[in-house]
Amino acid sequence: MSSDEQKTNQQWGGRFNEPTDAFVARFTASIDFDKRLYAQDIRGSQAHARMLNKVGVLSQEELTAILEGLDQIRDEIERGEIEWSVELEDIHMNIEARLTDRIGITGKKLHTGRSRNDQVATDIRLYLRDEIDFILSEVTRLQQGLLDVAEREADTIMPGFTHLQTAQPVTFGHHLMAWFEMLQRDFSRLSDCRKRLNQSPLGAAALAGTTYPIDRSYSAQLMDFDGPTANSLDSVSDRDFAIEFCAAASLVMTHLSRMSEELVLWTSAQFDFINLPDRFCTGSSIMPQKKNPDVPELVRGKSGRVNGHLISLLTLMKSQPLAYNKDNQEDKEPLFDTVDTLKGSLRAYADMIPAITSKADNMREAARRGFSTATDLADYLVRKGMPFRDAHEVVGKAVAFGIDQNLDLSDMSLDQLQQFSATIANDVFDVLTLEGSVNARNHIGGTAPDQVRSAVTTARSHLSQRSE
Ligand code: ARG
């Protein structure tokens, strides 16, 4: 065999005396999953080539050949015409080899002054930046849906729960606005992550930088980064941005999972608070009566794998010495699956939420049944001059009486109520009604319908500033 025939890999085979073991070649290759980075890889290579031309390393003709060759390869990939090669290991070397096939020797000059280590770090940042932008738009779409339903349901009364026991009446709109707030924080966390990842590692080369007179600010600018990263060793080994993203994604999924849990409860026959349209549910193959809330259940389940990916990445990084290590190739699958899972879950939620309708009578009945205005009665006694602890005791006795007689507080007569405190007068019935109870909580963040409407208005103005 000539030494050329022995090489498994034309890019780095020079020093090797025997070809790579066929299984090892497959085992170490990442092309099966990193081909997803093709567009970012080409964008990064074009920026690198332009920079090399600017500093005099590539001639104008060479630059033009490289740029055009890479454009054509992008088209080829998008037409599905490229055959990926495991021998070429990853997306970076597949594209480079294809470029050399197309444009000849000039293709071999593209890798001057860079390494796959800074190349892959650049590609992932470009990829994640695009995905975060899309995810942010999906979070916004879901939030808009929540605002529409919250506005429609601003006056709808339901029981509020602590310990999943009826606590105090709230409005359904208020409950939905709590979900909106969770997503506000998610939006802010993802935007923050995007800000920090938006720096260019390109030019760090393998780990120490390069001997060519490169202009890192110029290539950073060509890729719309805020600027170059500061330290070459850190640049090729840092995956904080991926971990931050997965942490932010875990929290979004945690929120969607909590919403899912409530939707599952509310669609059960025992609660029967909402209607979830058939198109978001499935049936049972054996029980003809079943309509299962599959979308919320599946999203609740998927939160687990996203949490798992966060732990994978933290564990992947925790003992790595500087600088690049092959371990880092393992960052992609958890990251890609996190992106896919999050996008799918957000899409399902953004489509589903606006279609939810309340069963207001059932919600109201549940709120009426659970002594949910007991705190209002205590507050009433306090306003009449009784210390709160005493009022708590008095109302506790009234509740015990109600349980015994199967009466809600608002069903009791004035005489019955006065057994517990002589200070109770006819005006007590204003506070014992569900409307009286929610309307009284009329301050910023309170459950009163007016507050819900004003929270919706404020929120709408926040969302409209996002698109500017
Ligand atoms: N496929 C590799 C990865 O995803 C690219 C960088 C490889 N660098 C190296 N020196 N082997 O991390």
Report on this structure:
The chain is mainly alpha-helical. It has three domains: 100 residues, Fumarase/aspartase (N-terminal domain) (Fumarase C, Chain B, domain 1); 248 residues, Fumarase/aspartase (Central domain) (Fumarase C, Chain A, domain 2); 97 residues, Ribonucleotide Reductase Protein R1, domain 1. Helices cover 61% and strands 4% of the residues. The chain contains 20 helices and four strands. The chain has a two-stranded antiparallel ribbon. Strands 3-4 form a two-stranded antiparallel ribbon. α4 packs antiparallel against α5 and α4 packs across α7. The longest helix is centred in the first third of the chain and has 37 residues. The chain starts with a helix and ends with a helix. Arginine binds next to α7. The site of arginine (ARG) has 10 residues, from α7.
